[in-house]
Specification:
Strand content: 15-25%
CATH superfamily of the largest domain: FAD/NAD(P)-binding domain
Helix content: 25-40%
CATH topology of the largest domain: FAD/NAD(P)-binding domain
Number of domains: 3
Structural class: alpha/beta
Length: 499
């Protein structure tokens, strides 16, 4: 029985769970990670088809350049020595009906470009960048400052006014007072797809964090894909003397009606005991399904049902029989926009208008030749879609709809990569149902709860719960989705654990 007792049990080996486990294991704590899949990473892992390697959902991960937050964490905990990094010096090519330019991952060149093409708004561009640099300076001070968290919050009106202002505004409201031209505002809002909400709904606070990571700083790629990162984290956790078990699904988080954690039970009936559990599973399943306390389940069911989830996503993965350079692709990423109106894009996505929805096109094989057989290449294109468009289809209807979607997307890619249709060796499609099935995202919500003003920053779901000893990590919690957001959530969950 003693072998079944742990300092902390972590449910789920996604980025948030692995970060928590690694941080705690490094302190000499006995940690057990339980993962239902046969490999770590959750929906963010890689997969192979006929010699082609694809990232299932990852398209751009910030914070991986030397000095970046993710890189620093991996360096500090001995993971980087197990990885090879490939530097990325630009975000990629951004395409609009009247503008086609390359974002070089530094604000100076972006600001110069925008002032050149929108001279009437040059002063507004200056003001926008002045204001966001104030925001970043205050954010960095808040995160890195030595004052206790409660003291920072108390003094925030005096120390962090830019953070408070951004937390109270949508991105559209934040920009409108500075930028007059709607097309310019559209360009500045391009990366709304990394959040899942258009500028009229997205929190300016969270958008600006993502904006700096994508368009303001260089980053890096993990050679052989991000599954290499997750495997390296698992290896390091084990080197610290802790355990990671795969093909083990947690069926129940045990409290026995005491209001405090006792352990977990798996679908095979195994019981593991601890007074502390960090769940990297989505909080809806965790707090309304896994917990054995009826009262807590009912309280959380009411609370969580009132929270808005993000839209789901669709993706086409293509393995090609020639290098993409032969088709004219010169950048690792293409961000294709059919309009400057992102509310319009959002409607196109929700209404399954695949001819006009925005697309993010990436080719990891241009960074890492190991993603495709010699002389070949791998590419993917992602957009958003409503879960409701897919949830009630027959098997026949589902297959037909997937085929139609893929056909439209490939036809659209012809405009930028002429001849691509004749060079496809592998074609796979992921739908909102795929996101739900593999990621266990309720309704396929790829970014968890929406980053609206009312659900972002301190309003977002905390790592702490009302159940003593139960903590949350992952995309649905503070600060948000993505590898970077999940890493921060995992660190914060580990810090919340008390011994």
């Amino acid at each position: 029985m003693a072998g079944n007792h742990y300092d902390v049990i972590v449910v789920g080996a996604g980025m948030g769970g692995l970060t928590s486990a690694l941080k705690l294991a490094s302190c000499g704590k006995k940690i057990l990670v339980l993962e239902r899949h046969s490999s770590p990473g959750g929906v963010a892992s890689s997969f192979k088809r006929k010699g082609f390697l694809f990232e299932s959902v990852l398209h751009y991960v910030d914070g991986l350049a030397p000095g970046g937050q993710i890189r620093a964490f991996l360096d500090d905990y001995g993971v980087s020595q197990k990885l090879d990094y490939i530097d990325i010096k630009e975000f990629g090519r951004v395409i609009y009906p009247e503008h086609d330019f390359v974002v070089g991952a530094d604000f100076d060149s972006l600001e110069a470009y925008l002032k050149d093409v929108f001279p009437d708004d040059a002063q507004g561009v200056d003001k926008f960048f002045r204001d966001i640099h104030k925001f970043y300076a205050q954010l960095d001070h808040f995160v890195g400052g030595k004052l206790p968290h409660w003291c920072k919050m108390l003094l925030s009106p005096f120390l962090y006014p830019s953070i408070i202002k951004a937390s109270c505004l949508t991105l559209e409201q934040f920009m409108t007072g500075k930028i007059k031209d709607k097309k310019l505002r559209g360009i500045l809002g391009t990366i709304w797809g990394f959040i899942g909400l258009p500028p009229s709904e997205a929190s300016a606070f969270y958008f600006l964090i993502v904006f700096r990571g994508c368009w303001g700083k260089n980053t890096a790629f993990i050679k052989n894909g991000f599954s290499s990162l997750f495997n390296a984290m698992v290896e390091r956790i084990r080197e610290y003397g802790s355990e990671v078990r795969f093909n083990t699904r947690v069926k129940e988080i045990i409290t026995r009606g005491t209001g405090r954690i006792k352990g977990v039970r798996t679908d095979k009936g195994e019981e593991f005991f601890s007074e502390q559990v960090i769940s990297n599973a989505n909080p809806i399943d965790t707090l309304t399904g896994l917990i054995d306390c009826d009262i807590s389940r009912k309280i959380y069911a009411v609370k969580l049902s009132a929270m808005q989830k993000t839209i789901s996503a669709m993706q086409v993965y293509l393995g090609l029989d020639l290098p993409l350079e032969a088709l004219g692709m010169r950048h690792v990423l293409l961000c294709v926009n059919t309009t400057y109106d992102h509310d319009g894009h959002f409607r196109y996505c929700r209404n399954a208008d695949y001819h006009r929805c925005n697309l993010l096109v990436t080719s990891d094989s241009q960074l890492d030749g190991g993603f495709a057989p010699a002389g070949k290449s791998a590419i993917s294109a992602i957009t958003f879609n409503d879960y409701a468009n897919w949830s009630n289809l027959t098997q026949e209807e589902y297959a037909k709809k997937k085929k139609e979607f893929a056909g439209i997307i490939v036809a659209r890619l012809e405009k930028y990569l002429p001849g691509i249709t004749g060079h496809i060796e592998v074609l796979e499609v992921a739908t909102p149902m795929t996101m739900e099935r593999y990621g266990l995202f309720p309704e396929g919500a790829v970014y968890g709860f929406s980053q609206t003003v009312g659900q972002a920053s301190h309003n977002r779901l905390s790592q702490k719960t009302r159940i003593k000893g139960l903590f949350l990590a992952g995309a649905w919690t503070q600060p948000g989705a993505g590898i970077h957001g999940c890493l921060v959530s995992g660190k914060d969950a580990a810090d919340a654990v008390k011994f």
